[in-house]
Amino acid sequence: MNIRPLLPLLALALLSSAALAQPAPAPPAANQAIDVASGAWEGIVNIDVSMLFPDYREPWNAGQPSGGSGTGFLIGKNRFLTNAHVVSNATRILIRTTNDPEPHPAKIIHIAHDCDLAIIEAEDGKHFDKLKPLDFGGIPQLNTEVIAIGYPIGGDRISVTRGVVSRIDFRPYSHTSVDSHLAIQVDAAINPGNSGGPVMQEGKVVGVAFQGFSGRVAQNVGYMIPVPVIKRFLKDVEDGRYDHYVDLAASDFPIENPAQAKALGISGDGVGVMVADVEPAGSVGELLKIGDVILSIDDNPVMNNGLVRFEGELMDMNEIVERKFAGDTIKLKYMREGKKLEATVTLKRFDPYVRLGAQYNQRPRYIVHAGLVFQPLDRNLMDAHQMRDDTVNYIFDNFLTDKLYVERPEPVVLTNVLPDEVNTWLTPYAHSIVDEINGVKIKSLKDVKTALEKQDKPFLEIRLLEKNRPLVLKRELAAAAHKRIMQTYNIQADSYLGDE
Amino acid sequence: MKFIPLFLLAVSATALQAQTSAPEAPRTKSKPIPVLRSTAQLESVVQNSSLVKVNATSQPYNLHLPWQKESPSGRRGLGVVLADNRVLVTGQMAADATYIELELPESGQKIPAKVVAVDYEANLALLESAPSDKQKAFFAGLKPMAVDASARIGDAVSILQTGRVGEIIESPLRIGKVLTRRYNVEGSGFLVYEANGIIRSEANSFTLPVVKGSKLAGLLLSYDSKNQVTTILPAPIIEHFLKDVADGKYEGFPGLGMELQSTQDEQFRDYLGLKPNAPGVLISTVMKGGSAEKAGMKKGDILISINGFTIDSRGDYKDPQFGALSSSHLVRGRAYVGDKVEIKVVREGKEVTLNGQLARRNPDDYLVLPYQFDKGPRYVLMGGLLFQELSRPYLDAFGEEQRSGAILRLTRIATHPDKYEEEGRKKLVFLSMVLPTPSAQGYDKLGGQVVNKVNGKAINDLNDLAEAFKNAKDSWHVIELDEFPHILYLDSFSAERDNMRLLDGAYRIGSLKRLE
C-alpha cells in the first residue's frame, strides 16, 4: 500500500533553486516560539487514512486500496475538523498526536464534500479529553502574518510554515471541482499533508489549509478555507446532518457594454448585473428571466461585474447566498424591462450540478444484463472511462447549459458490452446514451431495472440516443447468457442500485 | 482505417533545390512518410510522352480571419495528357490554386494552365492551356493517354514518376482489393483500388498516374510506406468524370441520400422479420430532399435491390468486375445524375418497387458546409463582432483534442444537423470571434455561440443577418444567442463607427462582409 500525502491540485517540488535563491525569511518573533513538548499543539493531529478508490470501469469490484495522510485539529470535545478530501473513501482512519505514537481509530461524523470539510471523532475519546480545543478567529487582513501547522511531506513530526495573507477571493474548490466558495490565498508553504491543518493568527484559527498549485504552475500559492465557510458548515451540522449549500442557480454576465447598459435601462452608477442564464429547477427558476438585471441582494447593491461589498471586502454576490441555509430567504431587487421589482426568494439546493463534480464515499451503481453494462452518467464515470463518443461528451458537457437534466435527470450510459455469443454484434455500441428500453424512457438507472423486468415481448429492445439502430436481444437467449457471462467475467452481483 | 495521402519527402539535394517554394502538407492530419532509397532496384526507366509536370500554387483563405489569405505554397504533380490537350490531375492540385503551370519533364518548358472542371469529392480536376502558338508547340510532342477501366483484382499496374531530367520511373504494384472509401473531403465513399508494392520517393507529389500497360488505370490517392499499401483513384471514376465533363455541363456523382445498417446479427434479423438467408439491409436514415426520399423510400424499409442487383446483409452487391462491393457504387460510380433508378424494398413484409431519378446533393445544400475551396468563407463583421457560417473545415482546424466547450457543441451540430434544419435554417450562423472595439466592450471573451435572432428576425443564414442589422428597433442591435449569455446589445451608431475604423485599421480588414 502506498502512502499518498493528501492535497488536491498538488505535486509540489520540495526544494527548488528558486526557493534557495530567496532571501532568508526574518526569524520568528521570540514570543511566538512554540515548545512542542509543552503540549500546546497536541490538539493538532496527524490523520492516517486507508482508503478504497471505487472502480467505475468494473463497478462490481471493490476498487483499488490506497492510503494517505493529512492533518486535523480539535475543535470541541472529541471533535476534530479536517478536510473532506483527507477522509474521503476511507476504510480506516487513525489519529496520532505529535507527542504520542499511539494510533487512535476514528470515524467520520459529518462530511461536506461541497466545502471540503469533515468532522471526525476518536472511537475512544478519553485520550483527548484534557486537550484544549482551538479557537476560531475571523477573516484575516491582507498582508498580515499567518502560520500553517500540520504534517506535510518532508518528515513525520509536526511542521510550521509562515507567510502572509495574499488574497481573499471566491475560488473553485478542487475536491468536487464544481463548487466555488470564499477562499484565502496565503504564501506560507502549504504542501501535501498540510490538508485539514489549521492556519493561525494570534493564536486563533483563521482557516483550514486545503489546496495549492503544483510548483510548475505557480509558486507560493496555497489556499485555506476561511472561517465563514467553516462556521457555516458547523452551523449546518448542528441538527445532526449536513444539508449542503444553497444556490441561486442563475448565471450573471457583467454589464460593461454601453449599449447593453442603455438597453437594460441601467443608470450610470455601476449598479446591476445581467441575468444570462437561469436554471428552471433552481431557487430563482420561477422568478428571474434572462435579460433581467439584479440590483441588490439583501440590500447589498450588486455591481455591474457581479460583486458586492460585504463585510468590508468586495466579494462575489453569491457569497451572500453562501452564508445561508436551505429554507432561508433572500431579498432580491431586480429590474425587468426598465421596471424595478422586488421579491423574497426561498433558497434551496440545486441538485443537478452534483453529477458534474467528483463524488465520494459512494459505491458505483450499475446494472449488468446479458453482458450489457449500464451506469449512470457522472464525473466519476467520465473520468474512469475514456469516453470518445460525441453524444456522451455533449450530454455531460451541456447537462446544465442546455437544461438536459429536465428531460433526463440521470442519463444512463451503456458503458461496456462484455463479449459473448449473445451480444457479439453489439460491442461497437458501448459508450452510448440509453434512450429507451422496451418502450420505457430511461431517465435514471432505476428505469433500466423497471424496463428490463417488462416481459411482454420476445425481444429486449434497447434504443440508444443518436445511434441509428436499436440493439435487440432475444429474451430467452439473453437470460441464458446472463448467468454464463456473470460467471465468466467474475461478477458477483448483477446490479447495485444504491441504498434504497 | 487511416488514410494517408502521398507526401513523399525529397531525399536528394537536387530535388530540394528544384522546388520553388516549400510544399505544404495535404490538409488531412497525417505525417509525411519518407521512403527509402534502398528500394530503387525495383524500378525500371521507361519513356512516356503522355505525362507533364504540373506546378500549382495554392493559397487558401484563413478560416478564422476570413478577410485574410494564408501564405501561398507550392504543390507538384505529374498530370496525364488526355484528348484535346487537356491534362488530368487530382482535385487537390486545383484546390485554392492561384497559379497553375504545366512543365515538360524533359525540356523544362513551361506554360500556364487553368481549371476546366474540378470535382473535390471525386478528387479530380481537368486542366487546359489557352490556345496559342506556344501552347501548340508545348503539346506538339505529347500524345493523349487512353483511360482503361478494365483492371481487376490481381492485375499488375505501375505508378509513374519522373526523375531529375524527365526520365520516367516506374514502380510496379498489384491490385489486391477493390472497395469504396471516402477520398480527401467529407462525404460518401467512392470506388478505390488497393494495391500492394513499394513506391520509391522521387519528389513530393499530389498527383501520380497509375498505368496498366500504356493506358491510364488510375491516379495515386495515398501510400502507406509502413504497410506498403497504395490506394488508387480508379479509372471507372475517371471515366465517369470525363464523360460528365464532355457534355459541357458538369453535374457530379449522384447519391441516394440514405444510410443503411447491416443485418448480419441473427437476433436483429429475427426482430426485423428477415428469413435466415434473405438479402437486404435496414434503411436507418433517409435524407430530406434526396433521391431516395423522392423515390418514396422510408426509414425502416429493408433494401433488397438496386437496378436489379441484389443487396446482401452487409449492404454489398455482386459486381461483375470486382466481386462483392458496397451498394453505394451502384449509384455513385455506375450511374449519372438524372438517370432512372429502380429500388426494391421490403416494407411491412411486402416487396415494394420504388422508381426514382438520381440527383446529387450540392455542398451548399448542407447546413454545415462539408468542404470549401477556391472561395473565401462567408462572414459579416459588425462593430467587432465576427459572424460566420459553420463549416467542417472550420471545425477541423481545431483538431481532435477539443472535446468540450463551444467546439464540442458546434461539432455535434455538424454531425446531427436535423433539429436545426427543421427550424428552417439554411446555414448555422455563429459568433466566431470578437475584435476589441469600443462598441463590443465586455464581449471580447465570447466566441462559438449560435445566433438565433437579430433585431427580432430569425437568422437562417448570413444574408438574413446582414439584412437584420439594417433594422435596429432602437439605437441598438439586439443579438439573441442560443447559449450563455443569450443576449447581446450593440450600439448601432458606434458599431458603424467601429466598422469604419476596422476597415484598413490595425486589423487591415478590407471588407466588412463576404456574402457572395
Q: From the alpha carbons, calculate the radius of gyration of chain B and give it in angstroms.
A: 26 Å
**Rg of chain A (CA only):** 26 Å
Looking at the overall shape, the CATH architecture of the largest domain in chain A is Alpha-Beta Barrel
**CATH topology of the largest domain in chain A, what is it called?**
N-terminal domain of MutM-like DNA repair proteins
- Classify the fold: give the CATH topology of the largest domain in chain B: Thrombin, subunit H
Structural class of chain B: alpha+beta
SSE map:
The complex is a heterodimer of chains A (500) and B (516).
Chain A: E1 3-5, H1 17-21, E2 44-53, E3 64-76, E4 79-82, H2 84-87, E5 90-97, E6 100-112, E7 117-122, E8 145-150, E9 159-173, E10 179-186, E11 198-201, E12 204-212, E13 222-226, H3 227-236, E14 250-253, H4 258-264, E15 273-278, E16 293-297, E17 300-301, E18 307-310, E19 313-316, H5 318-322, E20 329-336, E21 339-346, E22 366-369, E23 372-376, H6 379-384, H7 390-397, H8 404-407, E24 412-417, E25 432-437, E26 440-441, H9 445-453, E27 459-464, E28 471-474, H10 475-488, E29 495-496
Parallel strand pairs in A: 1-3
Antiparallel strand pairs in A: 2-3, 2-5, 3-4, 4-7, 5-6, 6-7, 8-9, 8-11, 9-10, 10-13, 11-12, 12-13, 14-15, 15-16, 16-17, 16-20, 18-19, 20-21, 22-23, 22-29, 23-24, 24-25, 25-26, 25-27, 27-28
Chain B: H1 13-17, E1 44-46, E2 51-58, E3 73-82, E4 86-90, H2 91-94, E5 97-103, E6 110-119, E7 124-128, H3 133-140, E8 156-162, E9 168-181, E10 190-196, E11 209-212, E12 215-224, E13 229-234, H4 235-246, E14 258-261, H5 266-272, E15 281-286, H6 291-295, E16 302-306, E17 309-310, E18 316-319, E19 323-326, H7 328-332, E20 340-347, E21 350-357, E22 379-382, E23 385-389, H8 392-396, H9 405-415, H10 418-422, E24 429-434, E25 449-454, E26 457-458, H11 462-468, E27 476-481, E28 487-491, H12 492-502, E29 513-514
